[in-house]
Amino acid sequence: MRKPKLRELGEALKVLFIEGPYTASFPREATIPPKSFRGKPAFDPDICIGCGACSQVCPSRSIEIIDDIVARKRTLKLHYDLCNFCGLCHLACTTKDGIDYTEEYDLAGFSRDDMTVEVEKELAICEICGQAAGTVDHLIWLAKRLGPLGYANPSLILTDQANLGQTSEIHARSSDCPVGRADLFRILCPECRRKAFMTEEW
C-alpha cells in the first residue's frame, strides 16, 4: 500500500487544524448567493399589473391565472413546487419589476398548498359580452404609458378617469340592443370593440 504524499498530508492537516473545511457549512449557516443568482421569484403587488405575461411564457406552467368574473377579481398563483427558477417570468414582465428574483433558495413545506403565493387584481369587465377585458391596473398602466395616444381607446381613458374619480356612473347597457355607435364609448374587450367598429364602418 502506497503511503500518502507529503503535500496531500500537509493540506489535510492545514484544513483540519488551521483553516477549517473548504466546503460551506450549510445548513448550519446560510450561504449568501451572488447577485446574479436566480432564487425564488416573487410578485411585487404594487408594481404587478396582472397582465399575465409571466404565465404565458412559463415553461413549467407554474403560474396559474384564475379569473372570477362575478367577484371581478383576477388571481395570479405561483406554484413553487413546479417552478424551475428559469427567470423567464421576470424577462417577460410588462412592467419589468412586477415579478423578480429573490435570494431565497432553501424552500421546503409540508404540503403543496404551502408552496404557493398569490397576488390579486381587480378585473375590468366587457360591458357587451361580460368577459374579462383585462385588469384595471393594466388598463391604467397602458393609459399612462400612451399619454394622449390613449384617447384612441375609450376603454383606457374610461378606466383611468374612473380611477381619478373624474367620470360619472355609466348607465347599464341592455343585452337586447344591437352593437352600435354608443358602445364604442364603453369598456370593451378587443373582440367586442372590433365588432363595434365594424358595425359603425358598415
Q: What does this protein structure show overall?
A:
- The protein has 202 residues and is an alpha+beta fold.
- The protein has 2 domains: 36-122, 2-Layer Sandwich (Alpha-Beta Plaits), CATH 3.30.70.3270; 126-167 and 179-196, no CATH class.
- 28% of the residues lie in helices and 16% in strands.
- α4 crosses α5 (154-163).
Concise account of the structure shown:
The protein has 202 residues and is α+β, with helices and mostly antiparallel strands. The protein has helices spanning 6-19, 53-57, 88-92, 136-146, 154-163, 190-201, and strands at residues 41-43, 63-68, 73-79, 99-101, 116-125, 132-135. The chain has 2 domains: 36-122, Alpha-Beta Plaits; 126-167 and 179-196, no CATH class.
Cα-atom Rg, whole angstroms? 27 Å
Predict the CATH topology of the largest domain.
Alpha-Beta Plaits
Q: Determine the mean pLDDT.
A: 85
Q: End-to-end span in angstroms?
A: 96 Å
For the largest sheet, list the strands in their spatial order.
2-3-5-6
Number of domains: 2
Chain-wise SSE layout:
Elements: H1 6-19, E1 41-43, H2 53-57, E2 63-68, E3 73-79, H3 88-92, E4 99-101, E5 116-125, E6 132-135, H4 136-146, H5 154-163, H6 190-201
Antiparallel strand pairs: 1-4, 2-3, 3-5, 5-6
Helix pairs in contact: 4-5
